[in-house]
Amino acid sequence: MRADPVLLPAPPPTHPSAHLFFGPTVKYAGWWARVGAYIVDALLVGFSANLIGAFGVGGTTGAVIILLLTTVGSVAYYLILTANGRRTIGRKILGIAVVRDGGGDLTYGQAGLRLLTSVVSWLTFFLGVLWPLWDDKRQTFHDKIALTVVIKV
Predict the structure, then answer these.
(1) Residue (of 135, 138, 133) closest to 151 by Cα position
(2) What is the pLDDT of residues 83-129, one digit of tens each?
(3) The whole model's pTM is what?
(4) What are phi and psi of 85, to 5 degrees?
(5) What per-residue confidence (pLDDT) applies to 26?
(6) Cα–Cα distance between 55 and 92 in angstroms, integer?
(7) Distances (CA, A) of 21 to 35, 66, 100, 152
(8) Which of residues 5 and 84 earns the better pLDDT score?
(9) Fewer CB atoms inside 10 Å of the end CB: C or N, the chain?
(10) How far apart are CA 72 and CA 2, in angstroms?
(11) What is the pLDDT of residues 40-78, one digit of tens each?
(12) Each residue of 12-35: pLDDT tens digit?
């Protein structure tokens, strides 16, 4: 008499280079490392915008110019550095990187989606930002939407 074979669930799909990012085990970045990286990046972007504004026009026009430079500069900073090298300066200092959930670099579309949907994490009374404190993969809402994780490197 022959026993029926046991069917196991299929393993989750992974990027061909997942081992380069994850190795044998995934080490997700902690909440404090993510917060620290965000603070470093915010200070860099804010300092840069104010430095440029110091040499610019004063008054209302100067304030509008600083606001535009800060917005465009921060979007470009996060988008380009996240898509190209997975790491902003703050993330490099704190030893963390953003990668696809299955491993691999983010596309510009994925980095843009992550940046755009980060608003969801903040507008839910910071619930999305605090979510990594109890999530298995330590993902924020925008990580879940963009299918990304933040790992230690």
Answers:
(1) 138
(2) 988 899 999 999 999 999 988 899 999 999 999 999 999 999 899 99
(3) 0.79
(4) -130, 5
(5) 83
(6) 29
(7) 21, 37, 10, 9
(8) 84
(9) N
(10) 67
(11) 999 998 787 777 666 666 677 777 877 888 888 889 999
(12) 555 544 555 556 678 999 999 999
Q: Which residue(s) pair with 100 in the sheet?
A: 148
Question: Distance between CA atoms of 145 and 148, rounded to whole angstroms?
Answer: 8
Three-state secondary structure string covering the chain:
CCCCCCCCCCCCCCCCCHHHHHCCCCCECCHHHHHHHHHHHHHHHHHHHHHHHHCCCCHHHHHHHHHHHHHHHHHHHHHHHHHHHCCCHHHHHHCEEEEECCCCCCCHHHHHHHHHHHHHHHHCCCHHHHHHHCCCCCCCHHHHHHCEEEEEC
Residue 79 CA to residue 47 CA, distance in Å, equals: 19
Torsion of Cα atoms, 120 then 125 then 126 then 132, to 10°: -90
